[in-house]
Amino acid sequence: MKTQFILNGKVRLYRHVENGPWQCAAYLKGKDWRKSTKERDLSKAEDVATDWYTNLCTRLLGSENPGKMFVQAARAFLAEYEPMMRGCQGADPLQIHRDRLRHYLLPYFDTVHLSEITSGAVQQYRAHRLSEPERDMQCAGAQGGPGALKGWKPPGREAVENEIATLRMVLETAQRHGWIDRIPDLSDPYEPKGKAKPKLWFTPWEYRQLCDVLRRNAESPTVGRDKSEARQLRDYVIFMVNTGLTPSEAESLQYRDVQIIRDDGDEQILEIAVRGSDGVTYCYSTPAAVSAFERMAARNRPRPDDLLFSGQIRKLFNDILRASNLKLDRKGKARNADSLQYSYICFRLLEGVSLHEVAENCRTTVETIEKHYAVHLPDLADALLIDLRSEKHAAPKILRNGDDGNWPES
Q1: pTM above 0.90?
Q2: Domains of the chain, with CATH numbers?
C-alpha cells in the first residue's frame, strides 16, 4: 500500500492497488474519516483531499473552523495566473512564482489558514528565512527549502521580499474570492533606508585615459580582429558617451534611424529614433557624436537597414576596459557598457544641463537622475574645478566630451 501525507500529516493519502484511485483519511473529533478522491493523479488527489478536509472541518467544528487554508489560495492563484501569462517572452513568471511557493512559502504556510496570516506571521516568516534552520526555534519543524541544512547561506533581503511579493499575490487572490476581508500589512518594519548608490561611470580623467587607449588600439589593434573593428569600437564609445543610449538600444539601431540635423545653435547633432515597446521616441546627441557616425557610415558603406553595431561590440568593449585597467573602479566594482550612458548623464550634469533635459533625452525620470547621479556629483565638480585652475583650462572646454584635443576621438 502506497501512502502519502499532506497538511503536515493531518490527512493521509493511500491506495490499495497500483494505479488505482487515491483514498484520503483523517482523524477528527475522536473518529476516523475516509473518502475516495476518485483521482489516480497524486496532485489532483491532493487538491480533492484538501477541499474534503476543509469541508469536514467546517461541518464538524462549525465556528471553530478558521476558513480556507493558504494552500488552497495558492492553487487558486496559480490556476488564474497561468492562462494570463501564457505566451509571454523572456523569463517565465509563472515558473518563478511556482518555485517560490513550492520551495519556501508552502512548506512554511502548509497548515496555516488564511485568517492566521497576519503582519506578525509574515514578519516571523522573514525571520525564519534569514535564520539558520537548526537555530530557528520560532518555526520548529518548518522546512527551509532545498539544501537548507547543508551548505546553508542566508538569502538576500531582495530575494525574501520577492517571496513576500508572491505571498501578496496569493492573498489578493483570496480577497477576490471573498476568503479574507483584507490583506495585512506586509511591509518590512526593519527595512534599512540605505543611501542610493552612485552609478559606475567614467570620470573625465578616466574617459580621457580610455580615449587614449582606443586611439592607440585603432592604430595598432590588440583588441579586435583588424583595424576596421578596432576603429568601430572607438566610434562606439564616442557615440555612446555623446548620445545617452543604453547598450540594448544602440545595438538595435539601424542606419536609417539616425539623421544629422542642426540644433538651435546651428551645430550639427544626431537625431536618433529609438524604437521601444511604447513606440518611437527621439534622442538628440551632442555635436561630438556626429563625426563618429560619419566615420562609421564612410567606413562600412551600409544599407539603410544595416545595424550600427555588431552583437560582439560589448565583448570588445569589456576587453578594452581590461586592457586599460579601467574595468574596476576604486572600490572594485566592475564597469560595463552601461557605464557609457552613466558617463553621458554625469558629463551633461557637470556642464550645467538641466535635470529635465537630461532625463527626457535618456527616457527616464528626473527623480532617477536626481537620486543616482546629481546628489553624488558636487564633490567631483569641486575637485574638477580645482584641477582645471591648476592646469589653466576653462571648465566648459574640458567637458566637451571628445570634440577637441583633450578628448581624443580619432
Answers
A1: no
A2: 2-64 (3.30.160), 70-176 (no CATH), 204-253+307-398 (no CATH)
